[in-house]
Amino acid sequence: MCGIVGYVGSKEIGTRLIEGLKRLEYRGYDSSGLSIIENKQIQHTKRVGRVKALDAALPKNYLKARTGICHTRWATHGDVTEKNAHPHISSDQRFALVHNGVIENYLQIKQFLESKNYTFASDTDSEAIVNLIAYHFEKELEAPDSNRFLESVRKALLHLEGTFGIAVISKDYPDEMICARRGSPLIIGVGKNEHLIASDVNALTHCTQNVVYLNDNEIVHLTAEDFSISTISKVSVNAVIQTVDWDTSDAELGDFQHFMEKEIFEQPAALKNGMRGRFSDDGSTAFFGGLNIQPQELSQIDRIIFIACGTAWHACLIAEYLIERFARIPVEVEYASEFRYRNAPLDKNSLVIAISQSGETIDSLSALKEAKRKGYKTLSINNSVGSSIARECDGGIYQHAGPEIGVASTKAFTSQVMLCAMLALYLGRLRNLSYTDGCNIVKALKGLPKLVEKTLESKDIIQKVAKKYAHYEDCLFLGRQLMFPIALEGALKLKEISYIHAEGYPAAEMKHGPIALISEKCPSVFLTTNGEMFQKSMANIKEIKARKGKVICIASQDCELPEDAIDDLIQVPEAHEIIQPILMSIPVQLLSYYIALERGCDVDKPRNLAKSVTVE
Ligand code: M6R
Fold first, then answer.
1. For position 513, what pLDDT does the model report?
2. Residue 1 pLDDT
3. Are residues 403 and 496 in the same domain?
4. What per-residue confidence (pLDDT) applies to 569?
5. 314 CA distance to ligand 1 centroid (A)?
6. Ligand 1 pocket test target in 409, 603, 605 with most atoms within 8 Å of CB
7. Residue identifier of the C-alpha nearest atom 10 of ligand 1
8. Measured distance CA(247)–CA(12) in Å, rounded
9. Ligand 1 in reach of 311 Cβ (< 6 A)
10. How far apart are CA 122 and CA 286, in angstroms?
11. Are 496 and 438 in a shared domain?
């Protein structure tokens, strides 16, 4: 949550910072601000609301500066006001700081600093950091002038409890920037006579493809020409420069109205990219280059625990069905936020797999660390090369779905589900799944992108249905077996972007309570395929109709639905059961998207949300 961009270089910050900030807006968007140094003074502008409000308010001279930091905020401490927006300035006006993360002991630090006559203008925890830096700067009198800035930041960081990604500039060091991280991502953008810092690689690719991912407890000193990394405890670190393979246009809207829409329609390509080069020559299984666990070891695994949050957690539920069915390995799915504190007993041969689009979700990262600390093998499925989760686990599978900007996860979800299906296939083939069954699954997976394209062709039908139902304030999503996680995902999609109250249930659970909600005012979206659960699903649909509930049925084409059973029908192509959840996801995404559009909601930036949840 929140986004940081900083620049020090020989060029004017001009659009470099603002463009970077706009690309980060999906990380948090309640207020923003920018600081520069001019005539040995720190100047700053902040605005409540979107980055465009800040952009419009910036004095022209700002954009000509050559050192600057900026921030887009998702509030944790204090209201959404200009005074709480970043950058924060030390009370001696010497330093400006932007911060992502949460400082847990900020009240103690604040009290201490107030006793030393430092003053505070905001309600944030971040302001404690910048004043603590100012305090240590005063104390660092003996340090050589060239080191004093760096050393005072370093000293301040030693006192912080909690998480931080920070960028600091100082009026006394107008050509320098100091940045550091612990538990909150920061990436250096390496350019020619310029260096950038950002909390997300997206904010750098318009300037450079060369990046360095900082590790926890590292601090970096940057100038236009150079940068040096050390640990907060002063051990120097060799920088590894990596090349980002994203295209700048990947993070641009193109002809689409919203990123969510763009990303829904990018799914055929995202799925193709995720499976490329990952099928065996004999056409019967999948394989993954980065697992770092030998097949012999994997075949000893007798339990898999998936950890994730939100949409990624729904992908885990599908993994549970598929791995248990095709590989016969017991699977448990845990909310990362619960798992990390639950002290769950694990067996010797347990494997822990985290799924995360961003690779930065703090609960998933912390749960993964907890599993590692206990000595378990850990893997991840994630979409962000070099992210904290990718670096923390023993091995993993990159999604290669391209950047996902819309807050509502769409292409990342279907790509996670596909990779879970491929993992189920791989693990199944290491055990008892037959060659023929393996070949059938590979064939189905290879045909998936085309079937997704076909499903997307229903967009006009779905838009019509959306228009009809956009005024309802409640909605149930129901499905059985593999359709149950899609029901959960459909409900999450709808509520997060259209603010309609929506719940997902396994359809048979309806009778145990939710059926009380069914009325003319509460429609149900019912997901069904023509599998073994079809007749039972029909019985559930009839129960809804008997209570005057409207039914939107999302069904595979081979389902024969009694005419009076449903109000609206959205069909998806029939397919192998392993890919059916992916095909079923497309209509639920489009339905939510068009309903939100109909209700005039800000689809890409729904209220109170941010793309990546990096605070607890
Ligand atoms: O980056 P992650 O996959 O770890 O994010 C997990 C959730 O925060 C995320 O899926 C969230 O639920 C989305 N807003 C859902 O659309």
1. 87
2. 67
3. no
4. 94
5. 10
6. 409
7. 311
8. 23
9. yes
10. 54
11. no
* 356 Cβ inside 6 Å of ligand 1: yes
The domain in which residue 559 lies consists of 457-616
Q: Are residues 225 and 296 in the same domain?
A: no
Q: Of all protein residues, whose CA lies closest to atom 12 belonging to ligand 1?
A: 310
Q: Residue 230 and residue 150: Cα distance in Å, rounded?
A: 11
What's residue 252's pLDDT?
A: 77
Q: Is residue 452 in some structural domain? A: no
CB-ligand 1 contact for 540 (6 Å cutoff):
no
For atom 14 of ligand 1, the residue with the nearest CA is 408
* 474 and 554 together in one domain: yes
Residue 478 pairs in a beta bridge with 505, 526
pLDDT of residue 87: 96
Q: Check whether residue 118 and residue 223 sit in a common domain.
A: yes
In the chain, how many domains are there? Answer: 3
* Least reliable range by pLDDT among 349-358, 408-417, 554-563: 554-563
SS3 138: helix
Shared domain for 418 and 491, answered yes or no, is: no
416 lines ligand 1 (CB under 6 A): no
Q: Which atom of ligand 1 is nearest to the CA of 410?
A: 16
451 inside domain:
no
Mean local confidence (pLDDT), 519-538: 90
Strand partners, 341: none
Catalytic residues: 2, 611
Q: What is the pTM of this model?
A: 0.82
Ligand 1 centre to CA of 409 (Å) is 6
Domain boundary among 216, 249, 282: 249
Determine the pLDDT at residue 247.
66
pLDDT per position as a tens digit, 361-402: 999 999 999 999 999 999 999 998 888 899 899 999 999 998
Residue 473: pLDDT band by 50, 70, 90 thresholds? very high
Cα 329 to averaged position of ligand 1 atoms, centre (Å): 26
The residue-averaged pLDDT of 258-269 equals 96
Which of the 8 DSSP states describes residue 214?
A: P
Nearest to 161 by CA among 202, 103, 109, 201: 103
Judge if 432 and 466 occupy the same domain: no
Are 95 and 139 in contact, with CB atoms under 8 Å apart? no
Using DSSP's 3-state secondary structure scheme, residue 567 falls into coil
